[in-house]
Amino acid sequence: MQPQPNTVVVRAVDRAAGGAVDRMRVDWTAVSGLLRDYHLQTEHEKAQHGVAPGGSELPARYQAEIDDPASAFAGAEVVVADGEDGPVGMVVLQAADGDVELKRLWVAPAGRRRGVAAALMSHAREHAERSVAGGLRLSVWDWRADALGLYRSQGFVVVPSWESRERLVCLRHPVR
User: What's the pTM?
Assistant: First the structure.
């Protein structure tokens, strides 16, 4: 299905083998590219804010996600958002302490200010409701003011941190 101009189609990445092998390869290749961009941007920002050393190499755990996202996120739902020119965003949804945690939420620059993040978050809410989770949760670096504003506008509130890393803000949105 080809999206209409300025529309976004959000869908889970198909893990079934069957006849969808070519589509799966394209999906995981797109996820890998989106993850690469996400991690490069995040590591650059972390270096700018003194949270991590700078450098051109990504930490091995992040490179492993890029190299094999299907294995890295086994057991999670990996969701992509397709714009008119292909995948422009993604999120990983994982069960976490009775909630669904949003991990690796990323919208490529070409997809920003077009409702992609809101569409991904809407899918995450529906996923949490189907899975009988109590809420959605996520963590975000405190310098990401635009992201914090988006999450607050979606009904997320700051909660006590479950993260050990400083400067990560933890947010939660109940779905029940």
Answer: 0.88
